[in-house]
Amino acid sequence: MNDRAGTDGHGSDTLSPALLTVLSGPSGVGKTTLAAQVREAHPEVWLSVSATTRTPRPGEIDGVHYFFYDRPMFEDLIAKGEFLEHAEYAGNLYGTPRQPVEERLDSGQPVLLEIELQGARQIRTTMPEARLVFLAPPSWEVLEQRLRGRGTEPEDVIAKRLATGRTELAAESEFDVTIVNTTVEEAAAELVRLVTEPASRA
Ligand code: 5GP
Questions:
Q1: Ligand 1 center–CA 90 separation, angstroms
Q2: Hey, CA dihedral for 60, 63, 64, 65, is it positive or negative?
Q3: For site-directed labelling of 33, which of 39, 46, 65, 129 has its Cα 20 to 30 A away?
């Protein structure tokens, strides 16, 4: 992948906000930081709390960062249709609890999902009105550095995530808009605009 700077996309300057925004992109690109910045600037945007079977990282709180379930429990919830989307990623299951998202959307509150590619594709099919935002790294090298630099995963997990990252980067064109995460400030400003600005902006 070539080096990239700034924000590009498919006419992002003329897009109006969607009530449901999906933020996707390879592991390590900075989705969580960006989503947190949007929430800070706009607390009215509701950030979905996902469920996962992976082990909590130091500092992660059950019910705040994720709902941490074991696999049988997670599979039971899948069978009951409790997830809006779900996917297996690097050996663990991840899913978006359906009910809280539907409740917010029904009441007109903007919702942000931070999920990987397979989940984004499911949302594209089941909720076509959602806006899919792809967060891209400025370069492959930067992605690799960020993933290793955060020091949260052992080498075998990093390798799995990087391999998946190649596939995810190749899917960029499936998204409505791309934000290149050159600086967190610029990327956050762009995402805030997409999630919250009135349609008249266009
Ligand atoms: P992590 O283990 O680094 O927290 O997350 C791994 C990947 O799973 C990230 O790309 C993250 O965006 C994605 N992810 C987190 N929650 C969900 C979810 O509810 N559904 C899907 N499909 N992916 C998720």
A1: 10
A2: positive
A3: 129
Please give the pLDDT value at position 6: 45
Atom of ligand 1 at shortest distance to CA of 31? 12
Ligand 1 atom with minimal separation from the 96 CA: 19
Binding-site residue ranges for ATP: 25-32
Q: Which residue's C-alpha comes closest to atom 10 of ligand 1?
A: 116
Distance in angstroms (rounded) separating the CA atoms of residues 110 and 104: 7
Give 14 Cα–ligand 1 centroid separation in angstroms: 29
Domains and CATH numbers, the chain: 20-196 (3.40.50.300)
Please give the Cα distance from 123 to 85 (Å, whole number).
7
Residue 18's pLDDT is 74
Confidence category of residue 177, pLDDT binned at 50, 70, 90: very high
Pick the closest to residue 198 from 46, 42, 48 (CA basis).
Answer: 42
Distance 84 CA to ligand 1 centre (A): 13
Q: Once rounded to an integer, what is the mean pLDDT over residues 139-155?
A: 89
Instruction: Give the CA angle between residues 8, 49, 123 to the nearest 5°.
Output: 55
